[in-house]
Amino acid sequence: MCAPGRRWGRRQRGLLWAVLLAAWEAAWGQLRYSVPEEMPKGSFVGDVAKDLGLQLLELSDRGVRVVSEGRMQYFALHGKTGHLVTAERIDREQLCRLVEKCVLRCELIVEGQMQVYRIEVEITDINDNAPNFKENELEERVSEMTAPGSRFPLAQAHDPDAGRNSLQSYELSGDEHFSLAVQAGPGGDQRPELVLAKALDREEAAFHELVLRAMDGGDPARTGTARIRVTVLDANDNAPVFSQAEYTVRVPEDVPVGSVLVTVTARDADEGLYGHVKYSLKKVSVMASNIFHLDSETGAITLLRSLDFEEGDSYDLEVQARDGGGLFDTAKIMITVTDKNDNAPVIAVRSALSEISEDAPSGTVVALLHVQDRDSGANGDVRCSLDGGVPFRLEKSFEDYYRVVTARELDREQVSEYNVTVRAADGGSPPLQSSAVLALRVLDVNDNAPVFAEERYSARLAENNAAGALVLTVRATDADWGQNARVRYRLAEGRVRGAPLSSYVSVQAETGALYALRSFDYEQLRELQLWVRAEDGGAPALSSNVSVRLLIVDENDNAPQVLYPPQAAAAAAAGSGAVWSGVELAPRWSEAGALPAAGLTRWLVLAVAAVSCLFVAFLLLLLALRLRRWRRQQLLPADSGALRGVPVSHFVGIDGVRAFLQSYSHEVSLTADSRKSQLRFSAGSCCDTLPARPPPDEPAPLLGDDDLA
């Protein structure tokens, strides 16, 4: 009762181990499947999406594809189901003639992740080939003197299937004089031998017809047959003898076709027909029979086609020498093919980017490469490198895979496109090389602000200009590309004389042309200071500003105005139809120096008189102070008094007279029209009245203590 439970437990544990093994292999990027040979195209191999944990949408979004080693693509990925299916009908015997376990390898490339998963598919054998003899008609020549029990090697049948489906046994039928013995060869192969079971008598029977049947272990079994005709000969005393029991030959794979690789020789002591020796190949594979040719008369083995070390590195032949009486000898020939550096490395681009952003971080993978050299030893050792001067480097991924990654950040403004050359060289002498070029375009990032052609702009515009007149054109360039380099211009916000700046000037957004929106008047506005902003089309946008100074140039657009007579008198004269002649009448009793009796003129006369009086009073006061100072100098010492509280540096002395260094002034302009009157203080209203002169060692004060009091 417990035995079934134990068996069930063992099955569960075995299933669990299989699941764990598959999960472990998937985690390390390797999957293993098996599929029988000769399956039709599109047959299911394995559920790759499930085993790798990929969603079906990711298969199309990430660009998943299957790449097989070699020229033929035996597998494909079904995009809708995520299944690995056969892309061609697979013949195990054609692909794996020299190996017992046939394994095909391919890679699953996930381009979106730059990931590679190794897939191994074992091609299992089916019994699709029957044993086959190289020749269907065999002939054996046996002397009637041959003793019973003698053995004669027979040609072997060949079955390309593997395992139980390969050749398993032989059968002999047709005559009681002969039986069949099968010997095991050193490689485990079966070698049939014809055994003489009963003495022969040529006079009784000169020929014996036999049938040799070879069978495999398939279900159902397949068979192959060969007919054997045994000719009974008269007595033959000596058998041929080879000069060597085993011949060993080493030839390079590049040996020319038609070359003689080795010549075997066998001697027979008999004479005549019994001493004539002929050579034949008894044990030879189908591949070897297509490569080597044995001359039956000379024993020379020549090359029928070129050797390829990568296709086969050794061949075992068995040669038989037979005389005319049917006696024979056998010898082994071992041909070893040595490798030559005849294969250049092959660079296959499994996945590559065509575009990369210039702000991609260092270490970004841009290409996945597979590099392989079919040669062996040092001839197959491959060294990969990149041409210098590019911001990329090579990294070993696993086995024969390499990744091309960025070595630093890129700058599109310096280099916008790269042609990255990957070179692979083997270790041969001389080494063989190959190369592949990766074309990569650098995508722009908005990392440059517009730059104006000048640090500041200035222009001169004559007043009374026409509205819409072109003032000047500012220009800015952006080192970026495309939309990021598109520059647009606008005015910075501001106000002029209480009005928005945009009511005075405008800038064309595309060209940077600055236009005047109104006619300027020099008497109202002499200078306009503004800022123009240049902004690119990036997101977010980058910008820069530049100052623009607009100078209004004066023109002679104002005529002189007559202050007198007043405009009212002139207008009245014009209204009455009279012409004012500029002459006024004065009364007869007017005194000398009298003016016309105008109100404004009267006030002007009074103002001038008042100013004149003040000026005369000031001169008299100054003269009195001068006289007083002179008199004081006559009575007192020079250093007895000083102007207290006033720095000496504010005065200058000339010939004993001191005066102020600075004078102050203002201008007053009056017109008949009060709107035109101006009162202006000059910016430099004070000025030096006397040239600078070093003061004397002991200056005399302008005013004494009494004067100040």
Automatic annotation (TrEMBL):
Gene3D superfamilies: Cadherins. GO terms for molecular function: calcium ion binding. One of its GO terms (biological process) is homophilic cell adhesion via plasma membrane adhesion molecules. GO terms for cellular component: plasma membrane. It is found in: Membrane. The keyword Magnesium does not apply. Residues 74-133, 134-242, 243-347, 355-452, 453-562 form the Cadherin domain. Residues 687-709 are annotated as: Disordered. Keywords: Calcium, Cell adhesion, Glycoprotein, Membrane, Repeat, Signal, Transmembrane, Transmembrane helix. Residues 1-29 form the signal peptide. The chain crosses the membrane at residues 603-625. This is PCDG2 protein. It comes from Vidua chalybeata (Village indigobird).
